[in-house]
Amino acid sequence: MSLSLIVSAIIFLMIAARQWLPSSIRIWHIMTLGAIALLLMRQITFREAFWAIDWDLILYLFSVFSIASALYDTGISAQISHRILSIKHPSLVLTSYILVMAICAALLTNDAAAVIGVPIAIVLARNMKWGLIPLLITLCATVTIGSMVSPVGNPQNILIANAGNFDNMFVVFAQWTLVPAIVTMFLSMLWLKRFFKTSDIINYEASKEYRESERVTQKWPALLSAALLLIFIVLASILHNVDGIYHPSIGQIGLAACLPIYLASHERRRILREVDWPTLFFFVSMFVVTGSLLQSGSLQHFLKMGNIDLAEPETVAFVSFFASQLFSNVPVVEIYLNLLHQQDPQTLMMLSAISTVAGNLFIISAASNVIVLQQAEKFGVKPFNFWQFFYLMLPVSFISVLISYIWILWFASWQ
């Protein structure tokens, strides 16, 4: 067993045991310390670590985090909260919140939706007398499932869309994942709603209460950046296979879209400070850890010994689900795409769907879960722990994997 594999397992165990560690230790600290340990043990060189990081994805995430931060400063979270609460009926309030966050995840990535959704959850929990912990966990499930249907819904979908070279990536993702996403979302909400007023679940403490932003800021740079991001992504999808024109990467698209914020906004310095830097550090460190693991050859050795065909639907589903629990879904997809020789739509969509819904099982399984947790802590709220998350999300994980797997196999049989 390689040192890289051992360090990866230790990282997972430390995150699982985080509730018993000092509160000052955050998830990104654990991942970063793991990356540093691998560098110090020379399991990966600094040069190799640099090239193991998907900088295009990091730039895109920086861009959407900047846009999410700028949108938050405009008071958009407070405005959404007011609109949702005006509905009054509890079921419709919850349904509206879920729909808004799912659409936000599909358009701006699940990570940006997590940033915007946490303060809304705090306001809703306070006004509707709901337990904040189950509502935050519902947010995690919503942004994960909602991100399934879009090639820019989450980082792993971006990687797969780039590898797939689809004619129209939005249409392809919707065809393969929209139905299971809708069914899974409905069933998941029926399950999670049961815990909103359960006393042993709503036991949380807040050192400071979230208050709606009273900042007066320019709204147009943030709104323009969000609009440009959507326009650029749609154009890139439509013109993807048109020869003779420049095809920007997803990172370049993100940076171009957030230019109005950093060129015209009076709050550019504050927006830059409020970018979710811990999550970016988490991603950078995670790529170093998985780069070391891939370089060690441990995974390749196991695949060779087991004579495993990575293109088989059962293998794609099994490996992408369980590997995501150890290493998070983004690096798993990055590794899988490097090991995969056959990249047909069924294989890529199975990898996309299962690796995405795999994020519903553990906190570390998806970066958006980490973001929700860290954003809640940022507002002074004591969020869910590892085992609370696992208990509520286990049925969600099971049903989402099962429905996605069955639908993709059925849809592939009709192609």
Automatic annotation (TrEMBL):
It is found in: Cell membrane. The keyword Membrane applies. Residues 17-337 form the Citrate transporter-like domain. PANTHER family: TRANSPORTER ARSB-RELATED (PTHR43302). The chain crosses the membrane at residues 27-45, 57-78, 98-125, 132-150, 170-192, 220-239, 245-265, 277-296, 316-337, 349-372, 392-412. Keywords: Cell membrane, Membrane, Transmembrane, Transmembrane helix, Transport. It comes from the Bacteria. Its main location: membrane. This is Arsenic resistance protein. Belongs to the CitM (TC 2.A.11) transporter family. It is a multi-pass membrane protein. It comes from Microbulbifer variabilis.
